[in-house]
Amino acid sequence: MICSSGEAPHDSLDRAVALALQGRALDAPALAAVLACCAAGNAQGGAAEVPRLLAGARAVRERHAGRRLEFCAIVNAKSGACSEDCAFCAQSSRHRTQSPRHPFLEPAEIVRAASAMQARGATRFGIVASGLAPTEAEFRALCEAVTLVRAAGLAPDVSVGLLTRERLRRLKAAGLSGVHHNLEVARSFFPRVCTTHSYEEDVEAVRLALEEGLFVCSGGIFGLGESWEQRAELAATLRELGVRHVPVNFLVPIAGTRMADRAPLGPSEALRILALLRLMLPEAALRVCGGRGLVFGAAGGEGQRELFDSGASGIMIGDYLTVAGTPPEADLALAEALGLAVAGQGG
């Protein structure tokens, strides 16, 4: 097969890596070669080019991020009873799950959780709350928690749904560092995932936070049935918005949700997703978050080793929203064994 440019796919894949090493966007033939390699890796006998793809992604990561790994952590500050109908989410009130439910935590409890994660290597701490937007009482408690987390020496981030410009400015005054707001999937796939708010509302939430000069983390969740082209579509949207910090989540099928019967992704496909994102977003910080243990296996194992040595440049440590995570001590030990400098740990 020859690409429309007249180049063989092998040459176009090499050029994709070369463009990413320069921090440049992939042109159409280069992206086509990367997507063809990613998709071929799913087919029997189609993985011949995958090692070159993964090696290229690793080289791009090391060019732009060095041999560093950043740890971040979150607290589930308000859990369950969410009004939204996201197909994968255990906290949606539309689903019958065993997800914990509790009101917004006291700020002192949030800062205790932040300090515990700081002692284990976290440099950023996200305060996450279910729902489309906090009530005014919840928002006041959130501002107090942000101030306390900042005073404890961590960069406080929030993931609390849609925030107006006025609320963003109040949070900045309280000491906020960043906003997490995932687009989750490509625009073309979004109607299959959520119907209770629009994709444009999520895009606008990201745009507002960027306009306010905040650290913005926005990425997605993979393994919902989206195509490789839709994965690239999401990455292209993030690049167009100027997002520089991208959390990467992998589906954990949870009983009671609409995605309960989907098979989890395997580590090979997950590594190819990370390679695609690294080549399309060469200078972004890619942080692997939810689903890491399910997809890559036990702490300190070969799967985690491959992940740490991939195109990713950060991980979430500790527990996730409704699923237990990998022990932070095991993550730190593996990073040190691989010669990776962990942010906040002398690196």
UniProtKB/TrEMBL annotation:
Listed cofactors: [4Fe-4S] cluster; [2Fe-2S] cluster
Amino-acid positions noted as binding [4Fe-4S] cluster in the UniProt annotation, renumbered to this chain: C82, C86, C89
Matching Gene3D superfamilies: Aldolase class I (3.20.20.70)
Gene Ontology biological-process entries: biotin biosynthetic process
Keywords: 2Fe-2S, 4Fe-4S, Biotin biosynthesis, Iron, Iron-sulfur, Metal-binding, S-adenosyl-L-methionine, Transferase
Molecular-function annotations in GO: 2 iron, 2 sulfur cluster binding; 4 iron, 4 sulfur cluster binding; biotin synthase activity; iron ion binding
Cofactor remark from the record: Binds 1 [4Fe-4S] cluster. The cluster is coordinated with 3 cysteines and an exchangeable S-adenosyl-L-methionine. Binds 1 [2Fe-2S] cluster. The cluster is coordinated with 3 cysteines and 1 arginine.
EC identifiers of the protein: 2.8.1.6
Pathway the protein takes part in: Cofactor biosynthesis; biotin biosynthesis; biotin from 7,8-diaminononanoate: step 2/2
Enzymatic reactions: (4R,5S)-dethiobiotin + (sulfur carrier)-SH + 2 reduced [2Fe-2S]-[ferredoxin] + 2 S-adenosyl-L-methionine = (sulfur carrier)-H + biotin + 2 5'-deoxyadenosine + 2 L-methionine + 2 oxidized [2Fe-2S]-[ferredoxin]
Amino acids binding [2Fe-2S] cluster: C217, R287
Record-linked HAMAP family: BioB
Family: Belongs to the radical SAM superfamily. Biotin synthase family.
NCBIfam families: bioB
Summary of the function given for this chain in its UniProt record: Catalyzes the conversion of dethiobiotin (DTB) to biotin by the insertion of a sulfur atom into dethiobiotin via a radical-based mechanism.
Subunit field text: Homodimer.
Name by which UniProt lists this protein: Biotin synthase
UniProt source species: Humidesulfovibrio mexicanus
